């Protein structure tokens, strides 16, 4: 069941040629307000950069 929406989006004829849509439980849905938040995007970007830097400076450690 965990991959149901992903599989549905990949193979269902109703979604042929459709892109850029958010799906939840095999239905089109609105994304969370956090998905459009510039401050959350910046925070996530910074956290990603921090993890990459930590990983590259210590190649023997996993994140």
TrEMBL record:
On the tree of life, the source organism's domain of life is: Eukaryota
Q: What protein does this entry describe?
A: Uncharacterized protein
């Amino acid at each position: 069941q965990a991959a149901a929406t992903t599989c549905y989006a990949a193979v269902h004829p109703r979604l042929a040629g459709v892109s850029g849509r958010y799906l939840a439980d095999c239905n089109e849905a609105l994304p969370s307000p956090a998905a459009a938040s510039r401050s959350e995007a910046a925070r996530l970007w910074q956290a990603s950069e921090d993890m990459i830097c930590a990983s590259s400076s210590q190649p023997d450690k996993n994140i």
